[in-house]
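Customer escalation, tier 2.

The customer says the design service returned an amino acid string that "doesn't look like it belongs to this structure." They asked us to rerun it and document both sides in this ticket. The original structure tokens are below, unchanged.
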């Protein structure tokens, strides 16, 4: 059935998507009316269940979103910073309680107290100046520093930047792919899959229609490095997508950008317009025979849409459930056509790889982790912000030298998003920023965001928060995750709020079932931080278990 839906969606193509129409229809009241959904079902020749099913999935289209006027960030970094109750109290002076919704997260982890109003994000002291009308966007600054500048290197300027594209378009796609192979770059979206292998698989597929998707759905609370790249280095991201298109034979680049990053959508659209004004988009770019164009799809608030197959379903206007693999997206992706999905940071590295050569890039880093990595530090650091470091850089250096240490006592850090490990502070000295070091020590580098858990924050409360997040964001396709994350939330919540002790054996069984039985890394990944917490904070957690 979903295969047929993909084909049907493909007939309308990218210029007229059901997903965007649903988003448009939700704008006025926060959710589309039942009549509109029926009309859309007829227009797209699908059942009503499909348009209703899609609409009810997303934070910003579901009926519970009706009438929401302001959104409070409830991501892990804001939760740990402990300022959100105060922000809510202040917002309640201007809004009724049912006009206040939630967003997870809006990428202001460097100062927290974050909220979204009228399509713009605010944080830090902004709440103290809040007023309903004429509330102007504050410029939000954070540190951006590097020990090795590749992604954060100054922009070369439009002409120079795209002269490299023009040169590339005159060369052979296989030679360019070889350069990417030599760089040994692995994906930065979490799984660490080699970029060249993915591109090669797509290149080898015989099909007239292929797609390059930039996964800009950075949903990991604590991470705002993709936001930085989209807002400050949009041409690096677009360049990487165009090269991916040239190598694989794709003519469309789709940027799936989360709604929680409204500024990023605007900046990337401007960069695309700039390319068009310079005649570097469309047919036969620079007389090379290469055709390419971009499309931005603004997401509607669902963490699972960061998972590449859910993301593809989302663009198609289907309920964004994870797809079983195989077939892989490079074989059957968007509209069942061969598709490359890459993370923003992975794509942004291509410019440097082609400019300086794959071998130069591969000289940076460790055995299996080449190049540099952006690391995001939250507001518990003396110098919060984004730091670009060579892979293999000791975590201690990031925490103490770059981040300036902690402002207030911290007992652990969750690194790599909600599915990343919980690293107790005594383990910092054992780790370096690379895939191998984290895996060998029982953690996960992921997207390398760092959320601090302060000493006075209950670890049980943190585990409950993770389960609550995981169950809310579960796509519901497989039982272990759909039911297991919910049961985990219930158990932890009951142990915190009632005179109830969790059966240890039952809890371990739940974690193992999630880990082994889940279809994707959402349900499969959530046990890692919880197991870390049980291992390293046993004394603190013991009273909650029988
Ligand atoms: C629950 C879940 C959420 C994910 N969220 C993101 C995300 O926000 N951004 C991202 O690039 N990859 C995310 N991924 C990984 C993608 O599925 C995919 O591996 C990635 O986009 C591929 O790009 P890369 O090879 O450049 O890393 C997520 C995966 C899972 C299981
Ligand atoms: S693990 Fe969770 S998010 Fe992944 S497919 Fe199963 S229900 Fe969906």
């Amino acid at each position: 059935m979903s295969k047929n839906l993909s084909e049907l969606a493909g007939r309308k193509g990218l210029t007229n998507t059901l997903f965007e129409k649903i988003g448009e229809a939700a704008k006025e009241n926060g959710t589309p009316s039942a009549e509109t959904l029926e009309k859309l079902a007829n227009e797209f020749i699908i059942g009503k269940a499909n348009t209703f099913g899609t609409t009810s999935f997303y934070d910003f289209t579901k009926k519970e979103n009706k009438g929401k006027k302001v959104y409070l960030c409830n991501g892990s970094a804001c939760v740990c910073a402990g300022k959100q109750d105060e922000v809510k109290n202040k917002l309640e002076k201007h809004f009724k309680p049912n006009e206040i919704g939630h967003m997870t997260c809006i990428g202001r982890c460097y100062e927290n107290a974050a909220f979204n109003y009228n399509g713009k994000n605010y944080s830090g002291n902004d709440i103290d100046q809040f007023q309903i009308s004429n509330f102007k966007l504050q410029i939000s600054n954070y540190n951006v520093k590097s020990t090795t500048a590749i992604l954060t290197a100054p922009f070369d300027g439009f002409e120079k930047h795209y002269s490299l594209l023009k040169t590339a378009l005159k060369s052979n796609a296989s030679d360019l792919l070889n350069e990417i192979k030599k760089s040994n770059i692995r994906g930065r979206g979490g799984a660490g899959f080699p970029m060249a292998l993915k591109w090669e698989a797509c290149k080898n597929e015989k099909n007239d229609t292929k797609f390059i998707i930039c996964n800009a759905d950075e949903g990991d609370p604590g991470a705002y490095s993709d936001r930085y790249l989209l807002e400050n280095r949009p041409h690096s991201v677009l360049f990487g997508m165009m090269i991916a298109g040239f190598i694989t034979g794709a003519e469309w680049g789709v940027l799936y950008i989360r709604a929680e990053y409204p500024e990023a959508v605007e900046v990337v659209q401007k960069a695309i317009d700039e390319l068009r004004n310079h005649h570097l988009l469309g047919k036969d770019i620079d007389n090379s025979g290469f055709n390419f164009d971009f499309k931005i799809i603004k997401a509607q608030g669902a963490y699972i849409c960061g998972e590449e197959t859910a993301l593809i379903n989302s663009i198609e206007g289907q309920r964004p459930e994870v797809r079983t693999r195989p077939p892989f997206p490079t074989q059957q992706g968007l509209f069942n056509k061969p598709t490359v999905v890459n993370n923003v940071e992975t794509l942004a590295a291509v410019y440097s790889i082609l400019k300086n050569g794959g071998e130069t890039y591969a000289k940076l880093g460790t055995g299996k982790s080449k190049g540099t990595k952006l690391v995001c530090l939250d507001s518990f650091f003396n110098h919060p912000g984004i730091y670009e470091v060579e892979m293999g850089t000791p975590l201690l250096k990031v925490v103490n030298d770059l981040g300036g240490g902690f402002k207030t006592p911290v007992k652990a850090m969750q690194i790599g998003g909600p599915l990343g490990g919980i690293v107790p502070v005594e383990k910092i000295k054992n780790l370096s920023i690379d895939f191998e070091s984290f895996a060998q020590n029982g953690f996960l580098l992921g997207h390398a965001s760092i959320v601090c858990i302060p000493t006075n924050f209950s670890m049980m409360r943190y585990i409950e928060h993770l389960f609550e997040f995981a169950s809310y964001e579960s796509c519901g396709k497989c039982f272990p995750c759909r039911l297991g994350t919910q049961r985990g939330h219930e158990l932890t919540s009951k142990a915190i709020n009632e005179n109830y002790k969790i059966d240890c054996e039952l809890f371990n069984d739940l974690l193992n079932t999630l880990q082994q039985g889940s279809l994707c890394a959402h349900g499969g990944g959530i046990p890692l931080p919880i197991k870390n917490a049980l291992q390293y904070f046993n004394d603190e957690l013991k009273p909650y278990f029988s």
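Tier 2 assessment: The sequence is consistent with the input. The mean pLDDT is 96. Residues 70-141 form one domain. Sent an explanation to the customer and offered a walkthrough call.
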